[in-house]
Write a structure and sequence with these properties.
Radius of gyration: 15 Å
Number of helices: 3
Strand content: under 5%
Mean pLDDT: 93
Pfam families: DUF4229
Number of strands: 0
Protein name: DUF4229 domain-containing protein
Transmembrane segments: 5-25, 31-49
Helix content: over 70%
Distance between the termini: 15 Å
InterPro entries: DUF4229 (IPR025323)
Number of domains: 1
Largest sheet: none
Oligomer: single chain
Keywords: Membrane, Transmembrane, Transmembrane helix
Length: 66
């Protein structure tokens, strides 16, 4: 369960940081702020969180084999 929690917390953290940075640079429309933050944090997590994602998938595959 731990790799899943680490990955989830990391994704949420990336989203929060992206949201904050975009707000500070001047995007104040709530809809566009959320959409752009979601896209940027998704791409960033794909690049930055590959080890955590691999750990989660390994945990899931071990659970299916057991």
């Amino acid at each position: 369960m731990r790799p899943f929690l680490v990955y989830t917390a990391s994704r949420l953290g990336l989203f929060a940081v992206t949201l904050g940075v975009l707000y500070l640079i001047g995007i104040h429309n709530a809809f566009w702020l959320l959409v752009i933050s979601f896209v940027i944090s998704g791409v960033a997590s794909y690049v930055l969180l590959s080890k955590q994602r691999d750990a989660v998938s390994e945990q899931i595959s071990k659970g299916r084999r057991a």
